[in-house]
Structure formats: C-alpha cells, structure tokens
Write a structure and sequence with these properties.
two-stranded antiparallel sheet, alpha/beta
Length: about 210
C-alpha cells in the first residue's frame, strides 16, 4: 500500500520510556502526597498529561504535579532509549523519500530532547498545546498532515494505545498497532506490526 507520510506516536512506539515515567510518578506520589499508583497513571498514557490528571481526579493539584513530574522526567531523559532498529529503519524511510512526523502527548521540551538524538529532523512534530485538542481527538494528526501537505489517504499512523487508534479513525488515516508498545490491540480488525521493520511489508517496500 503506497503512502507518502508515516506518523509515529513517541512513547511505546519509538522509545521505551516506561521506567522514566515510573521514576517521575513516584516522585510525584512523594512530593504531592498522593496515593494514585503508577499503574493507574500508566494505563492512561497517550492522552495529554492534564487530561490524565483529570481522569484521576487530581486536577486540583495539577500545577504542582506537572512541575514535579516534568522536572524528574527531564533529569532522567538520557535513560529513555529508542527501541531496537528504530534509528536505522527511520533512516531507511528518509532515504526512500517518505515524509516522517511525530504526534505525541509528551510535552515539547522533553520530546525535542529525545528526538535531538536522531541523525535527522522530522518533517513535523506535534506536541500538546492550548490551541488544539489532544488524543483521542484527531486535531494533531490533521495538523501534521496539513503541515506536510499530505492527504489522509496517503498517510498512516503508528500507535500503541486506544487513544491512538481512536485519533487515527477520527482523522481518516490508516492505523498500524505497534505490538511491542504499551497497549493491547484495540480491535480484531486492526493491522498489527511486530517490529518497526514490518512497516516495510505494509508499504510494499520489501
């Protein structure tokens, strides 16, 4: 299937950041004196951070929680690693002339710090802001396609959580579920890839 733009989620798809998130959340639990376990937080990732706090009924402490979480996460940002073959495969896609973008719920500062370790720049990177709704809304996917001047029919989104699947459906783009990521396959009808290299099979590049 021919595509011109591959859009990636970040956490659980390109990078394994679970330990980083756990470290930061445990700091939140201690400094903000909350009893919400990490697993309760973790099952909601993929949504913007403030949306997660709202679901967990922590909006009243949102400012402090977000500050503590981001500080401790940033302090351990070097511990976040790309999954095997990600860097090489992204380079191959780049050399094949494909456009590449990232749509993530991670904030811009930490996203930029992680992506700066790659030997190339993405065509577009979308992070949460006050102008557009976060996943599962389709806003950032639509904006990424507009920025790269690519139609939905020529795009595919690679995600690992229910919110990624929902956002892709609402944006009218094909969705591939990263089986190595954090979430279960959202539907029996969803196409699953076992490694990032399997995208080649989907695109008909091998």
């Amino acid at each position: 299937m021919s595509k011109k733009l591959i859009i990636f989620d970040l956490d659980g798809v390109l990078v394994d950041s679970r330990d980083n998130m756990k470290y930061a959340w445990e700091a939140v639990r201690k400094e903000a004196e909350i009893n919400v376990e990490f697993e309760q937080y973790f099952k909601l990732i993929g949504r913007p951070f403030l949306d997660i706090l709202d679901v967990l009924h922590l909006s009243g402490q949102a400012k402090k929680i977000e500050e503590v979480f981001r500080i401790h996460s940033a302090n351990q940002i070097s511990e976040i690693n790309f999954y095997p073959k990600v860097v090489d495969t992204l380079n191959e896609f780049r050399h094949q002339g494909l456009k590449l973008s990232v749509v993530t719920s991670k904030d811009q500062l930490r996203t930029d710090a992680i992506l700066s370790r790659l030997p190339f720049i993405f065509d577009d990177v979308q992070t949460p802001n006050d102008l557009y709704r976060g996943k599962p809304a389709p806003d950032h996917l639509l904006l990424s396609m507009a920025t790269t001047q690519t139609d939905p029919s020529d795009s595919v989104y690679i995600g690992d959580m229910d919110v990624d699947f929902d956002a892709a459906n609402r944006a009218g783009v094909d969705y591939l579920h990263a089986d190595w990521g954090y979430g279960r396959k959202p539907s029996q009808k969803v196409s699953v890839i076992k490694s990032i290299q399997d995208i080649n099979n989907y695109l008909g590049l091998v």
